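Q: A reviewer asked whether we had any structural model of the full assembly, not just the individual parts. We don't, so I'm hoping you can provide one. Inputs are below.
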Amino acid sequence: MQIQGGRSVAKLLNELGLNRETVLVIRNGTLVPGDGFLEDSDEVELRPVISGGAA
Amino acid sequence: MKCRVCRGPAIIDVRRHNANFCVEHFIEQCERQVSKAIDAFSMIAPGERVLVAVSGGKDSLALWDLLHRLGHHAEGLYLGLGIGEYSDESGVYARNFAAARGLVLHEVDLRRDYGYDVPRAAAATRRVPCSACGLSKRHLFDEVARQGRFDVVATGHNLDDEAAVLFGNVLRWQTEYLARQMPVLPAGNGFPRKVKPLVRLSEREMAAYCIVTGIDYQVEECPMASGNSHLGYKEALNTIEERSPGTKHDFYFGFLDRAAEAFRRGLVQDAATLGSCRDCGAPTPSDRCAFCRLVERAGGRLPGHDGDDIAGTDAPVVLGRRERP
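A: Here is a predicted structure for the entire assembly that you could use as a starting point for your response.
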């Protein structure tokens, strides 16, 4: 997925409809916090963190 | 965004603590939260031997890593559940983690050692796969802990897990489950102590811990858990948490502080009546334990029942038929 223009992690997740509790943003192997700014040229991984087993 | 401790660049925001952390101080924070849980609930005494239930996912590997860092003697137990490629891959993550740190990993494989797997058990019992999976795990964790003389079994249940289970139990007023939902279940009647040292840490923090410490874990979710009610409870709680950080913590620890005891008082204590399963020797209120009945329904067999005992295989823990006392 490609998105034009830089923005904060929090804003990106909000635009994508993702709950901040359920995903981590990783840039070049490093975590980026909610107010971290993502540049237009950045490639990031959105890693889900929710597991389903209750046993 | 700056680290609350050193004012250096932060890599994670933990909104329920209104705090941000750099890598070093986030790891310290995780260690501190685990130590706090262990101390507050008397989970593990110095020198005790801990068996960590390891799935290859973030929570169990982070737990094992944290217990090791904190100086506990912790060995791992991985159960091969026979859930296709998912199980094949999860075992690789668990073995690689143990090998890289020189830690002892015990393994039990349902298909090899008991002649069934979770998908087959789910089909035979006509219940959701998580039911057969959970029953198998609980039985085998206890069994291996008893045979290996471990003092305690530690599982990677985190704050999100416990809050979601509590939410589900409250929605249906499962009072017996509410009476038993504690971060520690004491040993007794042949069962080892069970502890959940991650109850003060969220699922997001556990994933972050793995990333910053270089723990390679299985990100893919169990294909059989998709759409289960537990995930729905988590989604509902996270919707509230996003608007009101700290809600999950207050919900769960408020229950422990102000309500759990009331449910425990109403619990019928039937543990003293437990006997031994005629097949495996495990504590059970009936003639045969639920696990042995499950194995039979799924078309499996207990080790030693057909001359196909796993003794002699490369399994580090040898499970065999237990004699009745």
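A: Points you may want to mention in the reply: Residues 13 and 20 of chain A are 7 Å apart (CA to CA). Residues 1-39 of chain A form one domain.
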